[in-house]
Amino acid sequence: MKANIDRFIRRKMAASVLLLLPLIAACAQNGNNGGQQAAIDPPPADIESAMLQEISGTADNASVSQDQLTVYLMDRNGYLAPMTLGVNLTGESTGEVAKEALAWMTSDNKLKDQLPEGFSAILPTGLTAESINVDESAGLMNIDFAGPMPGMIAADERHLLEAIVWTMTELPGINKVKLSVGGQPLRSLPSSRMPVYDILTRAIGINVEKAKGVDINRSMAVTLYFSSQSEAGEGYFVPVTRVIDRTPDRARAALEQLIKGPSDTATLKPVFKTAMTIEQLSLLADTVNVSLKDEELKAKADVPAETMEALVLTLSEATGAPQVRVVMNGDDSFLDSEDRPYDQPVLRPSAVNALEQ
Question: What is the residue extent of each domain of the chain?
């Protein structure tokens, strides 16, 4: 998302410069201030040439419009992460877009060089969707794969299931997935023998880990968004489903775990850099309201954008609410490090991790 916004801003800036060039020249030739020559001189020829070349290049790029498609790929550390790709979609219906998403998630030498550096497709070569049917009223996507399923390492099969379900439920209106092979319901995965439920939702989790000392019979799962870094040095979010002791307030438990930070500190980074406490958290209609206190945060200081994005992703995932309103140290008039305001509820981003391809 940020990359697309940056390209849009560069085009706008270049266009603004183009409009300014004749004005600057006119001021230099005709501008007077009390009978004296204007102080603004024409731009040097080399600078003007560079400006025009930049404008020419951005004008060409501006005519190429790409769609955004979020798929779940494997990073170099073995974690699944959502990646928002800039692609040229040929399909229009939800089922057609789903088929294209599966293609980007399937190992293919023709596509692998178009994925962000350090990320790979999780679906094995030969896994092909025979048919995809969408029940819009039920929010259900039925995917029938051509049989038999290709063999996979048992440890990778759960990731395959997670990637399919989480990718499909990124599509508008889809919250459930049903899988079959050769027209027969998929009851278990071939190598690991892991059972597959008839209807799959995000409740299966992703990158699942279990907190220490948790009784699985008295547990629940929360999905947290931590930070990682690509080989190219770009930051991105990794969702981690942590199994914790059961509590009636899922949203508060999720935020507490997010503040606690990742278990795998070697490859994942905490998004809260300072000690943070939750003063109040509630769900009202379609908005999560949260009030936080940070003793180390100076008055009117910028809050890290990464912190706020991870907070919004985690709380919207825990509650299903589309937006979050945040108060920091009793104040909602703060800005994050990218100058975004929080005096109004913030929507969950529609595109996550738009890395360079």
Answer: 2-62, 67-202, 209-347
